[in-house]
Amino acid sequence: MQPRKASWIECSGEDFDMARKKNSGETSVTGKDGVRRTALECLDTGEAATVLKLLLERHPELSSEAEQLARGRIASVSVEEIASDVLDRVSQVDLEALNGRAGSHSWGYVEPTEAAEELLTEAVQDVVDEMARQLELRLTSEAEATCLGLVVGLYRARTVKTDGGLDWAPDWPQLHAEEMVCDYVTSHEPSTRSSCGNRLLERLKDSTPDWIALLQSAIGRAVKA
């Protein structure tokens, strides 16, 4: 789900400058992995965003097309892909990460369960932020798919044994799933929350059978909020 950042081992600004000095006509460089790349391909995510901003400032006629491409990128979501991603993220919160967060620190003592819950929440925060961004752009269908993927991924995580975060916070997947559906439903206008929640439940009933009653209760609270 996360965009790939260019590796400076593969192609650095220094590499590119050296290539240009050797041949002023060159607009690409061969990285240490032997692959030839252009300057654009050597940019990291932040630099690419800066270049795009400058390009649109110089060529405002491209703004509409760029907006369409951006929306298409954000809208390209798959429930199954998100669910798998979420499951991977929370399963990778291992004992080493937990030991680094739990215990005595300069600011006080952190219980293992508290540490596990914090780490698990942080692990899926990017996906939660993506749902919020889709809702902000009024990409309702896409936001619904992201919410569904989150809940399904968390449902699958409930039985995973990792000796890490999930073992120390066994109730977290269910509680976080309830929080996600509440956030999704309350983001809608009060008049549409009930239909929105019912549609969500209908799509979840086969994927999360053991949680349907709990999710229905959570959605009921969100509808009344």
Notes on the protein architecture:
- By secondary structure, the protein is mostly helical.
- The chain folds into two domains: 13-58, no CATH class; 77-224.
- Helix content is 64%, strand content 5%.
- The protein has twelve helices and four strands, in the order αββααααββααααααα.
- It has helices spanning 13-22, 45-58, 63-75, 79-91, 95-101, 112-123, 125-136, 140-157, 165-168, 172-186, 193-204, 212-224; strands at 28-30, 36-38, 103-105, 108-110.
- The strands form two sheets. Strands 1-2 form a two-stranded antiparallel sheet. The chain has a two-stranded antiparallel sheet with strand order 3-4.
- Helix 8 runs antiparallel to helix 10.
- The radius of gyration is 22 Å and the shape is globular.
- The protein starts with 12 loop residues before the first helix and ends with a helix.
- The model is unreliable at 1-10 and 18-24 (pLDDT under 50).
